Amino acid sequence: MGFKEQLFEKNQILVAILGICSALGVTTRLHIALTMGASVVFVTGFSSLFISLLRRHIPDSVRIITELTIISLFVIIVDQFLKAYFLPLSKVLSVFVGLIITNCLVMGRAEAFAKNNPPLPSFLDGVGAGLGYAIVLAIVGGIRELFGFGELFGYRIIPLSWYATADHPDLYRNIGLMYIPPSAFFILAMLIWGVNRYKMKREG
Amino acid sequence: MLGFLKNFMEIEMKNLLRKSLDAQLAATEEGKPLARLRPLVEAVDHFFFEVVEETPGPPHIRDAVNTKRWMSLVVVSLIPVILWALWNTGLQKLVYTSGDRELMRDFFASSHSLSAYFDFVAKEGRWWSALLYGLGAFIPIMLVSYVVGGIVEVVFACVRRHPISEGFLVTGMLYALILPPTLPLWMAALGIATGIIISKELFGGVGRNIVNPALCCRLILFFAFPAQMTGDIWVGTNPYVVREALLKVNKDIPAVDGYTQATPLKRVNVGIDVERIHVDAIAAQFPGVQKVSTQDVLEPMWAKWAKSHDVDEELGAISQKNLRQFLITPKEAGGLGLLAEDYEGAWKLASLQYEQGVLTDWNFFLGNKLGCFGETSTLACLLGAIFLVWTGIGSWKTMAAVLLGALSTAFLFELPSLFAENQGAFSPALFAIPAYKHLLLGGLAFGAVFMATDPVSSPTLSASKWIYGILIGFLTIIIRTVNPAFPEGVMLAIILGNVAAPLIDHGVSRWYRRRHSFTALGTLGFIAALSIVAALVLSLVSGMLKERQEYAKELDRSRQLLLSARIYSPKGYLQLYRDGEYLPAHHVGEGKLLLGEKRATDADIFAVYQRHVRPILVDLGGRKTTYEKQQISMEKHLKEWKKTGSGELEYLPLFGILPESGQEPFVSYVVPVSGYGLWDRIYGYICINNDGKTVCGIAWYDHQETPGLGGEIASYDWQKQFSGKQIFQCDEEGNIDIETSPLGISVVKGKVEDVLGDSEKRKSAVDGISGATLTGNGVMRAYKDSLEPYRPFFKRLTQDGE
Description:
- The structure holds two protein chains of two kinds.
- Chain A has one domain.
- Chain A is 65% helix and 2% strand.
- Chain A has nine helices and two strands; from the N terminus they run ααααααααββα.
- Chain A has a two-stranded antiparallel ribbon.
- In chain A, α3 packs antiparallel against α4 and α7 packs antiparallel against α8.
- Chain A is globular and about 70 Å long.
- The model of chain A has no long low-confidence stretch (mean pLDDT 84).
- Chain B is of the alpha+beta class.
- Chain B has three domains: 214 residues, no CATH class; 251 residues, no CATH class; 184 residues, no CATH class.
- Chain B has 32 helices and eleven strands.
- In chain B, strands 5-4-6-7-8-9 form a six-stranded antiparallel β-sheet. Chain B has a three-stranded antiparallel β-sheet with strand order 1-2-3. Chain B has a two-stranded parallel sheet with strand order 10-11.
- In chain B, a hairpin with a 5-residue loop joins β8 and β9.
- In chain B, α5 packs antiparallel against α6 and α10 crosses α24.
- The termini of chain B are far apart.
- Chains A and B meet through α4 and α5 of A and α25 of B.
């Protein structure tokens, strides 16, 4: 089954290098990254499921637009739901939730898998792809929040007593780079390097 | 040594058998005198050895699992059903033919828990006699079925010169399992002989039949001997013995309350004249029934009847005589208008619906009930179904479709009686039986699992299986509920389904073929349908979430306002101002605060807002007034403000912040701010202390700025630098003139200290956001434009302060 492969070996971000844009934008903090990840899991899972259910009924000439309609349907549902129950989070995520529609990852799973496979495998494939994405986002978000803010989920991890003060200017400081999007690039690049390295080693 | 012997024997026996069979095969070759017997020899050959030839007819299976193995797997799947048939038939016979009232009562009492059930059967070796009875009832019928069926099969095979099929192994067993135990053996023989000939042999033998042969055999019996086949007396082997025994047991019990031998399904078979209220009126008297479904309608009717007849009995404790009288009195005379001949039927239905005695759903599911050999236990059928689906022999689609069809049809029948007037008290009782009960009654489970899935007589395409199954389920319930002549409809429904199967397949395959060539119209239609469905779903979602979204928005707005007034901290707790510092506090009710850090809930925010924030107005002369005084609706006014900003309003909106005491005078004022950011309008608050000059705090609550860049205006790290800034900007010399100095806060490009150094101007400037100069400019303009109209008000404040 494609589910497990999607998590690591065929991870959409690390291997297919899809969905990078949001991976840079919403990973400043862990809970934001996880919310985004969960939204993508929901959207890829269900859009794959429904595209697969309709796969024999979709006229080929309007295939892409149909897939987009289904994907955007679920994206809007997620967006509305976040607005109703997690307004502050939704404000932080802002356009990135809407941009799941154009996230190549979702479209990629629809085109590469769901349109040719039965509903259950498609659903699992979609959920797997989304989870793989969420895991990478969580790693990036975790690293960025830990070193950028010294916190995880908003709770302090690196004790305040370690921090540099006026009296002890040589102690620890938050890494300013982590606030800004380029840091996600570096972290992602290192993750991709690690995965490639691992695969090469295993294949001999 | 032993092993060797065993091996030797095996090989020798095999060789011997092979040689003997080869000789027989040779003797029955084409043209030899015994050629007609060849199918018989072949059948024996195929039974012992692998078949080498092709598959001549459906089911077309060429696999390690060939037709023969396939048929044996079906028999394996029947094992749970057969075992239960042996056991239950025997046990029911033991109880019902005993004529012993104690035994019957014990049995009924034991049916309520598994442990009591096992205790009951373990006592006095009852299990042994039950098993013997069961064998005695089932084995003869099974043997008759096999022998007679086999003879017919062999005769036809020999005459027609086609091979004997293993199919009759399955047919014979299925047939035996769907017969009532009371059936005389000769009838069983007649049924299978005529059934096999008519349904199978006439159509050309195995694989060419259009209806299920076992069901056809039963169908013939059903129409030939209706009395034996309609479920009146289906227990034991001799109906007369059972009748005598029951008469003996029921001697001192009122007729309707006695033990009967009718199958549970037969109880459902009442006319549509029996209404729910009749059944409920009876059920209300049953011990253990607290409240019936039409209690509210029933109660006043009974009270009225009791009053007019001088009867002093409560509903639930009505005597037999009065109850009957109440029920059969015509409606015009205040009774329930039940026909006298329906009384017994209504009683039986009531005991079924309200699970009296053994008539509980659990007993039905496990199979502790009367009925044909194989149909009693839904659980056993379920086990068989799992095996069939697991081995890939039975189609789960068909099974699921039958259940789906039956359940939804039964539910449709149930619906009107739920929504009719008077809680549907006067709708037919028969329709109001809970839909799921239909699945537990009669032969529906057995039919769905073993009969409808017959690969020869059911359709082959996936979609047709769904249609076929749903059709069967639908017809079953229609026959059960609408047709008073037949209590059970499964058999008829499946046979009708069989007949329709080729037609369904034909239609579906045409549809399949057409489906992949889309016309322009089809594509348009698809797009239209997709759009409509999507629009429907979205409007549904937004309708469902609208209220919650508005709530969340209001909560966020309140929170941001409190944040700008520094009553709320971005860390999630409330704050109190003490000695020049803001300290963590928590809500203690009615909006009051106490020191001590605790996360603020939504309710806390609203309560604190309620106590500390007063929406007021300011006229163009800077005088405070209220919404009430000006008779302006606050909601409308704020909406108006959102659209146009402060510039064009006659009265300016403002929020006064009350101190801890909750009493005026205000400690600060929150001015709503709006302007254009980079992309769209931005909305926020700025809180000015009551000196009219210094900023207490700010917030931006609604913006579409770029996340990570302009969006940072919503981050507290940026917002906190506003506290203590001056809204009146000084000139080059550092002088402020309240009449003319520009209002607002500058957002500089970079850091204030780098840009302005020690200049007095730094007092009204904050750091810019890197990469968001345009947003910064927008913010600056927003403050300037939003604060300007309030200048007279600030002037008054500064004068009051001075």
